[in-house]
Structure formats: C-alpha cells, structure tokens
Amino acid sequence: xxxxxxxxxxxxxxxxxxxxxxxxxxxxxxxxxxxxxxxxxxxxxxxxxxxxxxxxxxxxxxxxxxxxxxxxxxxxxxxxxxxxxxxxxxxxxxxxxxxxxxxxxxxxxxxxxxxxxxxxxxxxxxxxxxxxxxxxxxxxxxxxxxxxxxxxxxxxxxxxxxx
Length: 163
Known about the structure:
mainly alpha
C-alpha cells in the first residue's frame, strides 16, 4: 500500500509541476509576444498563438484532475439530499462507478485519437500535433486515478452531501 501511495504522490507532484511550468510558460510567451508587437522593427512570434492554445489545453485537462482530487467539480445533490444517509451513499457510489467507466472510455478514445493524429503536423511548429492531443488521455487518466483513489479510500466525492 505504501508503494501505491508513493507512486500516487510522484504522479501528483509531476502533475503540479507540469501545470506550473506550462502556466509560467504561457505568461512568459504571451508577455514576450505582446512586447514584440509594440516594438518598432519587430513582429509578434508566429508560433506563440498556437503554443499558447495547446498549453492551455494541457493546463485545463490536468487542472480538471486536480478538481477531482479536491472534490470541487459541479455536483447535483438534489436527489441525495432527499434520501437518507445510506441511500445517499449508494447514489454516490453509483455515480462514482459510472464516472470511472466513462473516464476509462475517454482514456481509450483519447489514446486512439492521439495515435491517429501522429502523422499530422502543427501549423507553425516542427512536430506532431499528437503531442497536444495527448493531453486528452493523460488528463482523463489522472482524473480516473483520482476518482479511484476517492472510491477505494471511501472518501466522500460530494462533501456537500454529508447529512
């Protein structure tokens, strides 16, 4: 069990580091691009818009998994609040299993989409667009791991449902 906790911590730190680096890169690239636009004799970076868009996709997908970890995603608790504590727990478990199944499907479809796009090149960058499509299965895989941790550790997914 300690090994799994260590592996999870490593993945969690990696996710946080990646988001931090990407977000800092977005700020720096955007600032440089804006600065160059207003400098006489310079033009904006031709690749900046594309890189910023793809970095934001990575930030969003990885950030969504942190939302799962912190239990801050939008919740519909109407039916759970109308029931007793035991039925609310059953509803929560059914929701978790459903979300886990859907995330598994999205991970598989995301991998297929990424592989399918390997031959496609970015418009202004010298590498495959699959690098950016990989945000889909990676982000969903992180969400899947976080949901499974919540599910198996018996931590409530919806803190607002506590009676």
